[in-house]
Amino acid sequence: MTSKLEPEERKALLNALEDTGWRAADGQDALIKRLLFKDFSAAWGFMSQAALCAEKMDHHPDWRNVYNKLEITLTTHDCGGVSVLDIELAGALDSLAEGVAEVDRDIGRPVMRLTEPVEKEKD
Ligand SMILES: C[C@H](O)[C@H](O)[C@H]1CNC2=NC(N)=NC(=O)C2=N1
């Protein structure tokens, strides 16, 4: 069973990853990163490659894609937190994203919506 990173190790590894846009997620023991692509095809192309890579690593991202945006969350179910497997997958995804995506550092924004809220019709 994979174990959670010890606090000191987690801090050091996360510090290094923060330069590439990864953050500790809010309200969940996980890593999160948002990427921006030229268009949907570029996002999907990356996701296809990333899926094959994740499958090889037997460690898989939680992700949400809206057109050219991708929000990736990494966590390890077995231990209910961030393990070395998340750090390794984060590094592999960063290599695949090089040159095809830019980091969306505007992490303070609300989570992407599938649709804009519909304005209620007035009687
Ligand atoms: C049974 C299988 O090995 C596990 O479910 C693997 C598969 N992919 C996984 N992916 C992620 N992100 N976390 C896990 O703990 C995990 N566990």
UniProtKB/TrEMBL annotation:
The highest taxon in the source lineage is Bacteria
Q: Which reaction does it catalyse?
A: (4aS,6R)-4a-hydroxy-L-erythro-5,6,7,8-tetrahydrobiopterin = (6R)-L-erythro-6,7-dihydrobiopterin + H2O
Enzyme nomenclature, EC number: 4.2.1.96
What SUPFAM superfamilies does UniProt report for this protein, alphabetically?
PCD-like (SSF55248)
Task: Report the Pfam families cross-referenced here.
Answer: Pterin_4a
**GO MF annotations for this entry?**
4-alpha-hydroxytetrahydrobiopterin dehydratase activity
Keywords for the protein's UniProt record, in alphabetical order: Lyase
Q: Which InterPro entries match?
A: PCD_sf, Pterin_deHydtase
Q: Does the keyword Plastid apply?
A: no
Report the sequence similarity comment from the record.
Belongs to the pterin-4-alpha-carbinolamine dehydratase family.
For this entry, the protein name equals Putative pterin-4-alpha-carbinolamine dehydratase
